[in-house]
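REVIEWER CHECKLIST
Item 1: Sequence provided? yes
Item 2: Single chain? yes
Item 3: Sequence as submitted:
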Amino acid sequence: MISASFKNKARRWARFLVGGFSNTAFTYLIYLGFSKVIHYQAAYFIAYCSGIIFSYWFNATFVFKVRLSWKGVLSYPLVYVVQYGASALLLGLLVKSIHLSATYAPLLVTACMLPLTYVMSKIVLGTTNRLNKPGQADANAAKKT
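Item 4: Structure as written out by the authors:
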């Protein structure tokens, strides 16, 4: 028998993956459009920033089910500052060292960053959600004891 907790986690991962696929399609189209007129790294940066906004909204609303807030929207990009550094390095490695096409390399980069993004999103959104609900931190602390 599968526990309710496991089912909830599996559903949350499934929603995260749906959001990730949607975000990937959205940002990849932006990347392709801009990469035709500017350097691929600049195009990647623009697409990446657009994806952060979409990701915050989707993950807060549908995956982790927390309220949208200014604290959340200002904190959430921290996930992507770390991820962007790792992604840009990996993108450069794939394009320059392995000679993977700059058209397809971002798709592989995105797949590689998925676990890191999930864990960091969960931490940041969970923290900002607790900060936004009066008394929630005390309730969570009481549950842990």
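Item 5: Key structural point noted by reviewer: Residues 4-35 form the longest helix (32 residues).
Item 6: Recommendation: ____
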